[in-house]
């Protein structure tokens, strides 16, 4: 090591350890768990869940298995995925806002059809076309935040607006100034009033409406009407099939390679809702926690700022994200510590065996990125913010942050090797710019 390198090495310092909910006490009852869940679902996991490969539990008479072993997860999400569907609580909570015809809730053949049809829309070239939309939304937010220097700003709210604006511009080419407030109102209203499962949502079978299902149906009617207005306005702008300009163009042009079928109007509306909803809240959460962690770690903040500045002035609409290596590392470490989709739940359709345990029909399998990303056997100093940690690059593609998001993408295999998460690779745009 040269003297210059020694002088450049920062003095050893302990890494930042950001806050996290406490472990649940051992032996928590179903009722205790329901009460704890109202505060934080993460607080229902005890220490064992961070140490073992599989933890068996029982919730309201139903077996549940929290699975942390990478091979077992691959078995559930990829190798034997046809034996696992979403839980009825998940479907109940998501279908009023996502619809049943969108990619996220589709199952089996319908899901394969959709993946095949959507694949070209998420090819790298198509995703690259969306970058100028992302940059213009981010530039607008930077101008707004710069004008507010001084008094405290609500960064969570700002990131939600930014992500929603990006979702609107990438989907429809127009900024959501006119409809943004209504869209946010729908999403927030649903999240606060109807998305939290009530215990009757858990107990009742899917074809028996729970009391909350009546309000969810009313919400669905208004939400579908609102989406209809957005789609009609976008259709009025015309499609540009020769040179698509946004996700909407790509989805309208999409055809199943085997049957040649396009999406029906109802399917198109559900895909629009799915992409906006699945894309914006996750991205907003990732950006918010990245900024939070950077605010706790001055040296990481300085390094990221230096990397972004080293890019030099860019032409409007241009940014070379491949050079933002530290920015990418901060995002990966943020997704590890605060995964926006912290739990993936599945119900067994038929019997199976996982990690030495017999799985019965209707047993619930819980795969928690939150636990995996802080598992004591998988990570050194799991609760610390260390963007320079080696495991992130070593484990990439295995069980590192964000892998879970690619679960069904992998199951799609050669059938449709590209996914909406190609768009996620562009998320460093927002952070690098900010
Ligand atoms: C940091 C950002 C993101 C995270 C952490 C994330 C996480 C996830 C996870 C964990 C799943 C699997 C859920 C399950 O199967 O139960 C998923 C699926 C999905 N996500 Fe994302 N997501 C992100 C961004 C996006 C974006 C930007 C879009 C849209 C443009 C999107 C659209 C989807 C869709 C359509 C699915 C279903 C895919 C399928 O089943 O084939 N996501 N995401």
What does the secondary structure layout of this molecule look like, with pairings?
Layout: H1 3-8, H2 30-39, E1 54-59, E2 62-67, H3 70-79, E3 84-85, H4 88-98, H5 108-118, H6 124-146, H7 155-172, H8 180-194, H9 199-203, H10 211-236, H11 247-253, H12 265-296, H13 298-310, H14 325-337, E4 344-348, E5 352-354, E6 357-359, E7 364-367, H15 369-372, H16 390-394, H17 407-412, H18 421-424, H19 427-433
Parallel strand pairs: 2-7
Antiparallel strand pairs: 1-2, 3-4, 4-7, 5-6
Helix pairs in contact: 4-10, 6-7, 7-12, 8-10, 12-14, 13-14
Bound molecules: protoporphyrin IX containing FE.
The site of protoporphyrin IX containing FE (HEM) has 22 residues, from helix 12, helix 17 and helix 18.
Quaternary state reads: single chain
Helix content, binned percent: 40-55%
Query: What is the string of helix and strand elements?
Result: HHEEHEHHHHHHHHHHHEEEEHHHHH
Q: What is the overall silhouette?
A: globular
Mean pLDDT: 83
Proportion in β-strands? 5-15%
Strand line-up across the major sheet: 1-2-7-4-3
Instruction: Give a quick account of the main beta sheet: strands, pairing sense, barrel closure.
Output: 5 strands, mixed
The hetero compounds bound to this protein are:
protoporphyrin IX containing FE
**CATH-defined fold name:** Cytochrome p450
Name the poorly predicted regions: 1-9, 396-407, 410-418
């Amino acid at each position: 090591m040269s003297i210059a390198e020694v002088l450049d090495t920062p003095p050893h310092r302990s890494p930042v350890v950001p806050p996290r909910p406490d472990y649940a006490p051992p032996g928590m009852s179903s009722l205790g768990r329901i009460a704890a869940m109202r505060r934080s679902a993460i607080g229902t996991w005890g220490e064992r869940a961070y140490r073992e490969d599989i933890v068996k539990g029982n919730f309201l008479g139903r077996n549940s298995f929290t699975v942390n072993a990478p091979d077992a997860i691959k078995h559930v999400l990829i190798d034997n995925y046809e034996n696992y569907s979403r839980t009825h609580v998940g479907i109940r909570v998501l279908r009023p806002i996502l619809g049943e015809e969108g990619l996220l809730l589709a199952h089996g053949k319908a899901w394969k059809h959709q993946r095949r049809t959507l694949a070209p829309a998420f090819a790298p070239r198509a995703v690259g076309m969306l970058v100028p939309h992302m940059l213009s939304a981010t530039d607008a937010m930077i101008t707004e935040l710069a004008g507010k220097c001084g008094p405290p700003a609500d960064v969570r709210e700002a990131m939600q607006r930014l992500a929603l604006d990006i979702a609107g511009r990438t989907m429809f080419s127009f900024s959501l100034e006119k409809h943004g407030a209504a869209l946010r109102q729908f999403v927030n209203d649903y999240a606060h009033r109807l998305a939290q499962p009530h215990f009757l949502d858990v107990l009742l079978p899917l074809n028996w409406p729970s009391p909350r299902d009546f309000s969810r149906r009313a919400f669905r009617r208004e939400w579908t009407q609102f989406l209809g207005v957005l789609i009609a306005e976008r259709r009025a702008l015309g499609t540009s099939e020769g040179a698509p300009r946004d996700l909407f163009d790509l989805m309208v042009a999409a055809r199943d390679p085997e049957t040649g079928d396009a999406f029906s109007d109802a399917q198109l509306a559900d895909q629009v809702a799915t992409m906006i909803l699945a894309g914006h809240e996750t991205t907003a959460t990732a950006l918010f926690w990245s900024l939070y962690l950077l605010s706790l770690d001055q040296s990481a903040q300085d390094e990221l700022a230096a990397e972004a500045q080293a890019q030099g002035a860019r032409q409007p609409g241009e940014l070379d994200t491949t050079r933002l290596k530290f920015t990418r590392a901060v995002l990966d470490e943020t997704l590890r510590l605060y995964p926006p989709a912290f739990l993936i739940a599945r119900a067994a359709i038929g019997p199976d065996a996982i990690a030495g345990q017999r799985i019965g029909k209707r047993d619930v399998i819980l795969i928690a990125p939150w636990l995996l990303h802080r598992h004591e056997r998988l990570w050194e100093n799991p609760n610390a913010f260390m963007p320079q940690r080696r495991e992130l690059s070593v484990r990439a593609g295995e069980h590192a942050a964000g892998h879970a998001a690619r679960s069904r993408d992998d199951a799609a295999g050669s059938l449709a090797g590209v996914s909406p998460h190609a768009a996620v690779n562009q998320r460093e745009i927002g952070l690098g710019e900010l």
